[in-house]
Amino acid sequence: MNILGIETSCDETAAAVVADGRRVRSNVIASQIELHRAHGGVVPELAARGHVTAILPVIERALDDAGASEKDVEVIAVTAGPGLAGALLVGMNVAKALAYAWGKPLVPVNHLEAHVYANWLTFPDDQAVLPPPELPAVCLLVSGGHTELILVEDHGRYRHLGRTLDDAAGEAFDKGARLLGLGYPGGPAIQEAARDGDPRRHDLPRAWLGESDDFSFSGLKTALLRLVDPYRLPAPDPRRSPSTPFAEHRPPSFRDDLPRVDLAAAFQEAVVEVLAVKTAGAVRREGARSVLLAGGVAANRALRERVMREVECVAPEVPVRVPRLELCTDNAAMIAGAAYYALRRGEQAGWEADIAPRLPLVSTS
Fold it and tell me: 265: which residues sit within 8 A by CB, 6+ positions away?
């Protein structure tokens, strides 16, 4: 079964063709990072406009890369939420139009569930094709908007173990990078700076929250702010470009003696340690048969290594699965992969399908 996946939840326009929920035949991503870099973060209206421009060429290229046509595609899958409303609408409307024109089933996909299913995907150039992850699995889902610890009991059955009480891990990295003047996006900037730093030179707090599996990063951000403030120079007046109504983002200026790399290393270590330790604790308590990392922050090298180390200490027989880097950030292959299992559960939509910008993975009601 060939599924065409479409993803437009935030600032990546993506399309992919995936066979049987696992084999990635094509995966095309048009990033908007340069568009939003000048503003220091994603501007929702600009993101939606960018999707309108990019989506049809991206879909055409995904089909070309897969050597497929509309006749080869059996299902259209699209992100329904969570995400930015304007961005989601672009993908949903295009997916509906294609499903109607081609006479194909339409499957709306939960973006968070799709991140989990990135761990099921394989590529033609993989030297060894691993079997699907064994369930139940503990999944650490960490991105710019979400930080959740989930028990994947079976396909489509999830139990929340913990979630962030304030900032998501990716959001914390973005804010930490902004405080240090490292630029956008914050995750890769923090990782790059931390490579040359010593995390032991600055003692930043960890919010363990007792026996809870929940997370909190707002206090860590405040602690970094207090360390950085003495080095900050007066900020210039913001400038506006005549071609856009949005103020240009100008990074802060600092004294030359700001210990930037050591602070970046300490900040990254504080985030990673809590994520990894709580994940390993959940593995031991829940009797999981595998561990899954998912989301954009799963691309962080320090997090990958620390999770593997912590799990090795408590359950050496439990494998840790991490998607390829291109599948950690938002992509359409994960949408198509998740749709395969959703379709097996009988989840299909008609033309009444709509977006859900705040769609949860597990209902809290």
Answer: 193, 194, 195, 196, 197, 198, 199
Residues in the chain: 365
Instruction: Find the mean pLDDT for residues 263-286.
Output: 98
β-strand 75-81 against 2-7: which pairing, if any?
parallel
Taking CA atoms, 338 is separated from 144, 211, 302, in Å, by 20, 32, 27
| CA distances (Å), origin 346, targets 40, 108, 325 | 42, 12, 31
Among 78, 19, 91, CA closest to 50:
91
For the beta sheet containing 12-19, the strands, ordered from the edge strand earlier in sequence to the opposite edge, are 23-31, 12-19, 2-7, 75-81, 106-110
What token pair was written down for 41?
């973060």
Q: Average pLDDT of the chain?
A: 94
- Percent of the chain with pLDDT strictly greater than 70: 95
pLDDT at 106 over 50: yes
Q: pLDDT tens digit string along 73-102?
A: 999 999 999 999 999 999 999 999 999 999
CB contact at 8 A, 328 and 296:
yes
The yes-or-no verdict on residue 365 having pLDDT over 50 is no
